[in-house]
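#help-structures
NK: newbie question, is this the right format to request a structure? protein is Aminoglycoside phosphotransferase domain-containing protein
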Amino acid sequence: MPVEPAVLAEAIAAARRALPGVRPDGWLPSVQGAVGHVVGLADADAGPLVLKVYPASHVGALGTEVLALELAASALTLEVPRVVLRGDLSHPGVDGFVLMTRIAGTRWADLRPVLRPETTTALAHAVGAELRRLHEVRGTRYGALVVDGSSTASAWDRVVERSTIALTDYVATSGSAALATRARRFVEDRRAAVDSCAGPVLCHHDVIDGNLLLDGTPTLVGVLDFEAATWDDPLSDLAQTLVHVRFHAPGDVPALLAGYGITSDDERARLAVYDVLHVVAERAWIAHDRPHGWRGSVAALDHHLATVT
């Protein structure tokens, strides 16, 4: 998300007041994220850094990412950015900025076209294992990481909340009302499985190839962009990654699940619930925003919903 040059200049000036040696070094990401604008800075002592400016429209994203990075660093074998500095900005359209360390590596998404199939399969297995490690970080409520954010009393309450929003949006974007009813019943029929969730854990909610860094081997080395993290059912997080893997390399789904370690019927049923909810939400988003090739994507997602429900 781009920001005005004056906002970026204010953020850089604030960083330089705290770290006088820090300077822009010309680095930019291959793709700017949907939340925040990112540029590269460098400091003789701190090394390569990333400055991220957060829009005010994404309430709580800055605080969420700072807390999530701290929690994730204790659980993952992958590297995550370390927060060096956070600060406020005067512009009413932004929430503030974070200065964090820059991880060496290349986005999996940028390398995907040249990777061999057996390599992506091994990477999918490794992603599943890292998600399992992340989900060892346990919370006490379902919902926002930040203390003043929204929450629900149970995993099922959160599913009801999400399914209501997702299915309403689905129908509003020309989704089939009959298929929406089938999806709702599919979810409701699996309430017992959702209720079997042992408790909320730290969930990233966007562990996809655009947020995963590889070295030259290629091996997974880092994970980025924790601004959407919540306390949630871990299988909701896994399902989000599953939807992405299935789109790019359907044959890698078994490796992802094996790396994570799905073992029980209740886990498989919970995963199926979140798979349906993620597909419904993604289909509504695509139908609303209409990116290139959107009609084919919508048709494919509708077909998947019709098949599984």
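mod (FA): yep, format's fine, and the tokens are attached above. The longest helix spans residues 265-289.
NK: thank you!
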